[in-house]
Every structure is written in C-alpha cells, then in structure tokens.
C-alpha cells in the first residue's frame, strides 16, 4: 500500500504496495519503500509522532516567549507607575523612556545624552524599551521612582531654576552637572541616630540602612558616600546597588576578604550571583570570618536585590 503523510499528520493509504511518501510544508517530497506492511506502518507511525512532537515543541516555545513578553511588559509598566516616573527627573519632559541605573531615575532622550557624558560611575544609561533589564533591576526601579530620587538630589535648589522640556542642551548640561557631579542640591546628611552611634562610619550606616529596609535613607547615604565608603566589602556584599556606584569589585578588607567571599560566608546566593554577574573575581569563601554570623542574619532577613537592586 502507498501511504502519504505531511507535517499536519494527514495520511492516505492504498493497498497496492509498501511505498510511502513524506511531503513537507514547502512541497518537497521523499519516496520510501518498505519490505512489508508492518515495516511501512512502523516507519509512518514513528515519523508522524516526531512531526507531532516538533509541532508541540514549537507551540510551547511560542507560549513561553509570549509569557516572557507579558512579564516584561508588566515589569516595565510597574517602573512607569512609580511615583514621579511620568516625567523626566531632570527637565520634567513627559513619558521618559531612558533610565539611569545608578540613580534609579527615568530620563528623557535629550537628558540621556548628557548623563552619558557624566561617566558610568555617575550615571549608567540604558533604554527602558530597547535594553533587556534583569528582573532584580526592574524591581528596584519600580521601588524608587523619580519623586524619591529628586527628594534627595534636588532637596536644596537654592533658587536655581530647573530646565524645562524645551530647554537648550547647555541649560540641561549646566543643571545636570550641578546636580549629580557637583552635588549642589543634595539633601544634607542627617546626624547619626542613637542606634547608629556617633562614631559609626558611612559604610556602617549603609549596612544599617539595609537592615532597616530603609531605601530612601540608603539612597541618601549613597549620594554622600565616597568610593572608599562604598568599597567596604561587607556593605558591598549586602547592598548590591553599590555595584553601580563605581565600587571596586576587587577591594579587600583588612582580613583580605572580598565582598564575594563575605556574601558566600553569609549564605546569600542572591548577592553571590549578582557580584559574579558584574565581574567580581571568583574565589572560595573564607573558612572563618568574624562578620559571618552578623552578615548571615542580615542577608537572610530579606531579598537584597529586591530592596537595593544592582
């Protein structure tokens, strides 16, 4: 008998011989001849099963892509819905589509060019629509918002006029450099609280801000921190947002431990993954560290990347 099967699984049988044809979706045909009816039917059944499996796999991939696309759309909308994100953080232009990862702020395309000129240690610019943003980062961006950013970076404008959406490039650049490079408008750093103590360093205050889940306080501290403050390995291990503030991933403390080593000792796989993603040297965790128990109690208390991002 002759049997013809195409990729839709259609088949016709004629009881004249043991031949069968395979017809592709593009019209190509392959002719085969079996030795018996049983052999022919076995071959046709195997081929049809493979065609069905391929079609199901293709449909599964489409559903997965569709699901991922929907998840990304939800994440991006959550960022846009954050307080103040309907306007550019620097000139109030509506519907900004660019983001400064360091600052957690949305900016318009005109201001984005000036941010790039600041250098990535101050502002690392990405497109909200065109670039793939890690899930941890989208969670952080949706938690911050331009309103929170400007409550820190524009707290004391002292009569300086913020540029309008139709401002010239020179006006934008003057404002943006004064705001982020010279830090002329940054909110003052409040004195240490009783729980912090008068002798606590900025690195220590960063750590306490993480423990307190206090995102505005953390962002304010980061705005006042030097590179050395941010490089303190324990704070770096616990506040992975420091990765975008020009920190040195190879920095070691007095015991020779890096942020990665401390994160591993603390059992924070989330911090380990983010540190490795951003190029932190891979090395085993130290066998003993005086800060391990403390760090472990902190990092296990909440998802660090959700609080602080990258």
UniProtKB/TrEMBL annotation:
Gene3D superfamilies: Ankyrin repeat-containing domain, Arf GTPase activating protein, Pleckstrin-homology domain (PH domain)/Phosphotyrosine-binding domain (PTB). GO terms for cellular component: nucleus. PROSITE patterns: ARFGAP, PH_DOMAIN. Keywords: ANK repeat, GTPase activation, Metal-binding, Zinc, Zinc-finger. GO terms for biological process: negative regulation of neuron apoptotic process. InterPro entries: Ankyrin_rpt-contain_sf, Arf-GAP_GTPase_ANK_PH, ARFGAP/RecO, ArfGAP_dom, ArfGAP_dom_sf, PH-like_dom_sf, PH_domain. Belongs to the centaurin gamma-like family. This is ArfGAP with GTPase domain, ankyrin repeat and PH domain 2. It comes from Sphaeramia orbicularis.
């Amino acid at each position: 008998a002759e049997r013809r099967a195409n990729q839709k699984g259609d088949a016709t049988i004629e009881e004249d011989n043991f031949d069968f044809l395979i017809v592709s979706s593009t019209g190509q045909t392959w002719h085969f001849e079996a030795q018996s009816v049983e052999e022919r039917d076995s071959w046709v059944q195997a081929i049809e099963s493979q065609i069905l499996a391929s079609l199901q796999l293709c449909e599964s991939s489409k559903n997965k892509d569709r699901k991922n696309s929907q998840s990304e759309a939800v994440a991006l909308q959550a960022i846009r819905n954050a307080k103040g994100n309907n306007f550019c953080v620097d000139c109030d232009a509506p519907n900004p589509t660019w983001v400064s990862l360091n600052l957690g702020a949305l900016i318009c395309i005109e201001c984005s060019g000036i941010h790039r000129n600041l250098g990535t240690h101050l502002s690392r610019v990405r497109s909200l629509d065109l670039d793939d943003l890690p899930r941890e980062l989208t969670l952080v961006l949706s938690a911050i918002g331009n309103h929170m950013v400007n409550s820190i970076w524009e707290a004391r404008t002292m009569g300086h006029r913020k540029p309008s959406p139709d401002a010239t490039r020179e006006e934008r650049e003057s404002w943006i450099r004064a705001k982020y490079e010279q830090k002329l408008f940054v909110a003052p750093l409040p004195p240490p609280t009783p729980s912090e103590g008068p002798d606590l360093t900025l690195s220590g205050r960063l750590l306490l801000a993480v423990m307190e889940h206090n995102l505005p306080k953390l962002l304010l501290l980061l705005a006042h921190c030097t590179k050395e403050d941010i490089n303190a390995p324990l704070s770096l291990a616990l506040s992975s947002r420091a990765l975008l503030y020009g920190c040195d991933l190879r920095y070691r403390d007095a015991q020779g431990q890096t942020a990665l080593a401390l994160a591993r000792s603390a059992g924070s796989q989330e911090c380990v993954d983010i540190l490795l993603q951003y190029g932190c040297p891979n090395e085993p965790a130290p066998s003993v560290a005086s800060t391990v128990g403390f760090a472990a109690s902190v990092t296990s208390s909440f998802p660090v990347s959700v609080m602080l991002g990258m």
